[in-house]
Amino acid sequence: xxxxxxxxxxxxxxxxxxxxxxxxxxxxxxxxxxxxxxxxxxxxxxxxxxxxxxxxxxxxxxxxxxxxxxxxxxxxxxxxxxxxxxxxxxxxxxxxxxxxxxxxxxxxxxxxxxxxxxxxxxxxxxxxxxxxxxxxxxxxxxxxxxxxxxxxxxxxxxxxxxxxxxxxxxxxxxxxxxxxxxxxxxxxxxxxxxxxxxxxxxxxxxxxxxxxxxxxxxxxxxxxxxxxxxxxxxxxxxxxxxxxxxxxxxxxxxxxxxxxxxxxxxxxxxxxxxxxxxxxxxxxxxxxxxxxxxxxxxxxxxxxxxxxxxxxxxxxxxxxxxxxxxxxxxxxxxxxxxxxxxxxxxxxxxxxxxxxxxxxxxxxxxxxxxxxxxxxxxxxxxxxxxxxxxxxxxxxxxxxxxxxxxxxxxxxxxxxxxxxxxxxxxxxxxxxxxxxxxxxxxxxxxxxxxxxxxxxxxxxxxxxxxxxxxxxxxxxxxxxxxxxxxxxxxxxxxxxxxxxxxxxxxxxxxxxxxxxxxxxxxxxxxxxxxxxxxxxxxxxxxxxxxxxxxxxxxxxxxxxxxxxxxxxxxxxxxxxxxxxxxxxxxxxxxxxxxxxxxxxxxxxxxxxxxxxxxxxxxxxxxxxxxxxxxxxxxxxxxxxxxxxxx
Length: 646
What we know:
Blueprint: H1 2-23, H2 32-51, H3 61-64, H4 66-75, H5 82-101, H6 114-123, E1 129-130, E2 138-139, H7 143-157, H8 161-185, H9 190-202, H10 225-229, H11 241-249, H12 258-265, H13 271-286, H14 293-311, H15 316-328, H16 331-335, H17 337-355, E3 366-369, H18 378-398, H19 402-415, E4 419-422, H20 433-455, H21 470-490, E5 496-497, E6 503-504, H22 507-517, E7 523-525, H23 538-543, E8 546-547, H24 552-559, H25 562-578, H26 585-589, E9 594-597, H27 605-615, E10 619-623, E11 634-638, H28 640-645
Parallel strand pairs: 7-8, 7-9
Antiparallel strand pairs: 1-2, 3-4, 5-6, 9-11, 10-11
């Protein structure tokens, strides 16, 4: 109940603060620039200042600004677009409701580390932030910026970190929808704009059109997986022979969508910020006819390369080329060179402090020529990009100026069939995974946005071009159906990760997940069988609990300390394999609240009794179902008296 009260207070505070900022001058532009400041501007400014040793915000400061919002609402209510503010708030609450169906995280996301990093950033006055989980020295690299958004919300609005993470994801999706809506509103009515914005936000790729009947069982949370990872699946999972052959011949081609990342994965993944930047690019393009619109557009184009580096360095080459092409190829934008210099200067000033730790951002990526064996089959390209290509065809038939933008996006996307973002993996079906994921995802989102914008406001016989948007609407319906269905199932079923990459019910994990869901948010210790992509710590993720357990490779991406992460992994594995009379040392040193024991730990009743005796002064044990060969399961939980002392 307290979390719900805090959440409603935070949403109210955010709505009033947006109204206040609109009152102070942004209302003549719309809500999108204000939301950009909230989602990207403030976290970037806060991060830059803390990298310079200058903390910006103090705990609870957000509520001190509430009088400003109330003043704005009462002083000149006509200057605030209350209808748009209401629509934004409705989308925000809808996303929070979807997240609330299962506030945990998906097994295929990397967000098992998010709570750990957000908590470290939330408590740190300066950056790089000390890692409060004692796994590594600092929290750094390009994960810092997007995790700084929930850290800022948690700090400013006194929210628990898990709640701040869900609120951040909802805020990003609501910002994307608002920017799309306001862009379409320059050409079309409110209803058409709302539907178009919702379709772009919800759409998958053309892959979704193949998924009328879900590939996986209806009681599985795997429903959303094929929409993004169709070409990663086993060929024998499809009933169509031609699709079996195509999947077998294709490299990994994942194109993530806003709904997939923020709802299905629940993931604070850097590409989300790049999607926000793409939405604002469409917004500045659509509002160029307004007074000062060309200057804003030129300033945003000049700022994009630096901002994309701060959010996700993988995207810099393509975003930089896109911004340069739009800036130099548009005579009106070229005339606004002073505004472009201002945008470049502001973004440079904000991003440069982050570059003080640029050595931590070296991911070992090199750009090479793409081996012929890794190129996409033409049918795979047409399936993925089909709805976007049809929208581009509609723009061309309408002779809309955005046709040139869509052509540029298409060329940039095709460049990934020539360039290879290599991390030393130049063979195998997964070699293209990161390059495609980081580059194609924002380009695909931008192509859908510009395509729908090009078809907005059609009149007379030209309305027939709307038929070219039917595949987009079907993709949105099917993708949205499976993501919401999967989100519902995540809150209802416990899963096991089997060799067939399917998730199935298992009694010990069902018990552990339900037990964790009824625990206050704390820090869990869960068995690790390997250093990357294992079943553990699946239970902690699904229950939405922060965990010290996690894959070494992905943890090192965010902490910048691979050696420390490897030591953490070895300590966890050693504890489950060998802990005896000294079993209390590690949980006490790491301030663990819950310890999970599943069947795969291989503990016998005698082994459990030995460890329980060592932990009994601090932890009580909740027994779970027994497995074959007398393997036990259960949950150690810190006694209430110990919680109070901590």
